[in-house]
Specification:
Blueprint: E1 2-8, H1 11-24, E2 31-33, E3 40-48, H2 51-62, E4 69-79, E5 84-89, H3 93-106, E6 121-127, H4 133-138, E7 149-152, E8 154-161, E9 168-176
Antiparallel strand pairs: 1-3, 1-8, 2-6, 4-5, 4-7, 5-6, 8-9
Length: about 180
């Protein structure tokens, strides 16, 4: 199984992001737009996971204690080299603390944290092939885009099922944020 851990988005934020995506989508735009049902903030991508690792991960995540906290969604941006259009997520001490607790819970299960800096975001679209789609999209993104703040009350262990139209996610565990 292919797993990752993430924070689900509040319905208000999903609606705001979906409105922006609908404004920006164009027929034949050379982009594969992510489905709102799959939007999340990744805390850690685990990838291929064996059954015994799953049991270890789930047990470790269940032991995490962290209070609910506010998350601010930042204006959209681009990862040009990766061909991704995203909504940023403001880094806060609470978000970093939860991400570090997740890493601490998964490391004993054989997962190595990424060595690049944590850059939380919500992937809205990816370019298809070698098109100039991102450059064209940049010119259509409104200059002043604002999104609501929401309170993270849980984090989830997801299983990912890759497919030609993008990945589909299933929730394997719901983990409440409480002290």
């Amino acid at each position: 199984m292919r797993l990752f851990i993430g924070i689900p988005l509040d319905a208000t934020v999903v609606a705001e992001l979906a409105d922006l995506a609908e404004q920006l989508k164009a027929p034949g735009d050379g982009l594969r737009w992510s489905a709102p049902v799959g939007w999340h903030i990744t805390l850690q991508f685990l990838g291929a996971t064996k059954t015994e690792q799953y049991a270890c991960v789930a047990a470790g995540l269940r032991r995490i204690r962290h209070a609910p906290f506010a998350i601010q969604i930042d204006p959209p941006g681009f990862f040009d080299r990766a061909g991704v259009f995203f909504a940023g997520v403001q880094i806060s001490p609470d978000l970093i603390a939860l991400q570090q607790k997740v890493i601490a819970a998964t490391t004993p299960c054989g997962f190595v944290p990424e060595d690049r800096p944590y850059h939380p975001h919500i992937t809205l679209a990816r370019k298809k092939g070698q098109s100039s789609a991102l450059r064209q999209l940049k010119s259509r993104v409104p200059a002043e885009v604002r999104f609501s703040t929401f309170t993270a009350r849980e984090f989830l262990l997801y299983e990912s099922f890759p497919g030609p139209a993008g990945s589909r996610y299933e929730v394997r565990e719901r983990l409440a944020l409480l002290v």
